[in-house]
């Protein structure tokens, strides 16, 4: 059936996405308690015990909060690079050795016909990554929690059918917001989070005629609005690539899942 995916939830409070090719289901991050993860999956008629593998982007709590509990309950293998595993071992409790899988940055894993590639990104974590998923000629890229979009990252995610792309904050809202300047500086820095404007500019560089949908993800609840993110990204795309009529800008939610998106469907 090719690739389908759902963003179970995305934001500063927690993040998780499921990718399914009909034979294999891969969970990206476990940013909620096991109980909440089960509820989110149930929204999309998914049973937690149907998950075949978990891949981790980085060790921050909004990406691994329920990782240990979920993996132990359902005996799930976890894939992460070595530096991330050092941090995970300190935070998620005991994991069966056979379920601790090392997937080095830049490496590939194959789950049946579903191929998964990791790539390095810039964030204040041990060794953060994004992921590309391939099934035949279909490609899904998931990239959040990065301070800026490097040329290497752009190269990896170019020509995707769909993207889950960080639009974390509006720069003006962040600058006048209530956060201490030290936190604002972190968010705005090269190892922080991608703004609406930066996401829009990067999108123009990586999308092709193949790219049909972009899910705006990891929005700040304090310094962004979904309508603002959509408007900002759309304005940039229309200015730089007005011929991109087929592109759909899709919402994600901090408290519920997105509908299944099936690559290749209209």
TrEMBL record:
- Pfam families recorded for this chain? Lactamase_B_2
Occurrences of domain Metallo-beta-lactamase (ranges): 13-178
> Which reaction is the catalytic activity of this chain?
3',5'-cyclic CMP + H2O = CMP + H(+); 3',5'-cyclic UMP + H2O = UMP + H(+)
The residue range of the signal peptide is none
Segments traversing the membrane: none
Q: What does this protein do?
A: Counteracts the endogenous Pycsar antiviral defense system. Phosphodiesterase that enables metal-dependent hydrolysis of host cyclic nucleotide Pycsar defense signals such as cCMP and cUMP.
| Name of protein | MBL fold metallo-hydrolase
Species annotation: Paenibacillus planticolens
Q: What is the lineage of its organism?
A: Bacteria, Bacillati, Bacillota, Bacilli, Bacillales
């Amino acid at each position: 059936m090719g690739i389908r995916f759902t963003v179970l939830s995305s934001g500063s409070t927690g993040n998780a996405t499921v990718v399914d090719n009909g034979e294999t289901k891969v969970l990206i991050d476990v940013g909620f308690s096991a109980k909440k993860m089960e509820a989110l999956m149930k929204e999309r008629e998914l049973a937690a015990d149907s998950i075949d593998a978990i891949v981790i982007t980085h060790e921050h709590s909004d990406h691994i909060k329920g990782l240990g509990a979920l993996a132990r309950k359902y005996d799930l293998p976890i894939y992460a690079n070595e530096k991330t595993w050092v941090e995970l071992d300190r935070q998620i409790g005991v994991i069966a050795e056979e379920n601790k899988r090392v997937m080095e940055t830049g490496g590939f894993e194959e789950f049946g016909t579903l191929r998964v590639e990791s790539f390095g990104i810039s964030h204040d974590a041990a060794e953060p990554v994004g992921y590309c998923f391939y099934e035949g000629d279909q490609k899904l890229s998931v990239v959040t929690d990065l301070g800026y979009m490097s040329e290497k990252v752009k190269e990896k995610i170019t020509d995707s059918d769909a993207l889950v792309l960080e639009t974390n904050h509006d720069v003006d809202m962040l600058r006048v917001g209530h956060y201490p300047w030290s936190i604002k500086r972190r968010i705005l820095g090269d190892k922080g989070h991608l703004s609406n404007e930066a996401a829009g500019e990067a999108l123009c560089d990586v999308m092709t005629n193949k790219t049909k949908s972009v899910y705006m993800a990891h929005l700040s609840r304090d310094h962004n609005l979904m309508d603002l993110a959509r408007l900002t990204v759309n304005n940039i795309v229309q200015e730089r690539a007005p011929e991109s009529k087929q592109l759909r800008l899709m919402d994600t939610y901090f408290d519920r899942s997105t509908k299944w998106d099936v690559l290749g469907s209209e």
